[in-house]
Specification:
The strands form 2 sheets. Strands 6-7-8-3-9-10 form a 6-stranded mixed sheet. A 4-stranded antiparallel sheet has the order 2-1-4-5, with helices on one face. The chain is built from 8 helices and 10 strands. It has about 230 residues and is of the alpha/beta class. The radius of gyration is 18 Å and the shape is globular. The chain binds adenosine-5'-triphosphate (ATP). The site of adenosine-5'-triphosphate (ATP) has 12 residues, from strand 2 and helix 1. This is ABC-2 type transport system ATP-binding protein. GO terms for molecular function: ATP binding; ATP hydrolysis activity.
């Protein structure tokens, strides 16, 4: 089975510090998976190992069914840092430029604008967009190549409540459209994390809880989810 993400026993040590320990992480096709944990818990190190940027100390990573390598990264869309857009071009023009560079068909541009709910503002200059709209345009850019896996790293960082609510709706739409999404977040069941089909909670490099939001509320208790874990 070609699971989008499968790690087994994934471990990364930096000298005496264990950043990620014995991580078994599975993201299934079509699910929105939230990988949650406080700063320093090991999320970024895990992401780097998933993308083949950092070599694991132990364990294995399979991405889209294969050992991680350059080949399948073209099939992964990622919003990792705010992407660079041209401020004086419109949202639509920016996406057209990116589509051309990425070899994505121009017909994808209106589709992804619609998906991120920016169709009505697509002709406005990027410089005039709110932070939330910029983030959503970043998601649109990540979707241009119709990726088999979409990775969103802290997509609500810096957003106000209305931007966060828009991102929540967007992630729900992506899930409904059958996208496979891996969401990394330092919020523990904040507003956006609640739209995940499953969440895994990582603390000090270890997966300490995994399940649906409802499961975790029941079995782990709100205390664990409400407090910093380290
Ligand atoms: P954040 O949200 O702040 O990025 P995180 O959950 O992504 O946090 P990591 O950045 O993966 O956490 O860091 C996990 C631990 O590994 C931390 O203690 C960090 O200091 C350590 N660490 C990460 N990268 C390195 C490195 N290159 N060398 C040494 N220690 C590192």
């Amino acid at each position: 089975m070609n699971l989008p993400v499968q790690t087994v026993g994934l471990t990364k040590r930096y000298g005496g510090l264990t950043a990620v320990q014995d991580l078994d992480l599975t993201v299934r096709t079509g699910e929105v998976y939230g990988f949650l944990g406080p700063n320093g818990a090991g999320k970024t190190t895990t992401l780097r190992m998933l993308l083949g940027l950092v070599r694991p100390t132990a364990g294995t990573v399979r991405l889209l069914g294969r050992p991680v390598g350059a080949g399948q990264l073209a099939e992964v869309g990622a919003l990792i840092e705010g992407p660079a857009f041209y401020p004086y071009l419109s949202g639509r023009e920016n996406l057209r430029v990116l589509a051309r560079y990425a070899g994505a068909p121009a017909e994808r541009v209106p589709l992804v604008l619609d998906l991120v709910d920016l169709a009505g503002r697509a002709g406005d200059r990027y410089a005039g967009y709110s932070l939330g709209m910029k983030q959503r345009l970043g998601v649109a850019a990540a979707l241009l190549k119709d990726p088999r896996l979409l990775i969103l790293d802290e997509p609500t960082n810096g957003l106000d409540p209305s931007g966060t609510a828009d991102m929540r709706r967007l992630i729900r739409r992506l899930g409904a459209a059958g996208c496979t999404v891996l969401l990394l977040s330092s919020h523990l069941l904040g507003e956006v994390e609640q739209v995940c089909d499953r969440v895994g909670v990582v603390s000090q490099g270890r997966l300490v809880a995994e399940g649906s939001v409802a499961d975790l509320r029941g079995t782990v208790g709100l205390r664990v989810l409400a407090e910093p874990l380290d």
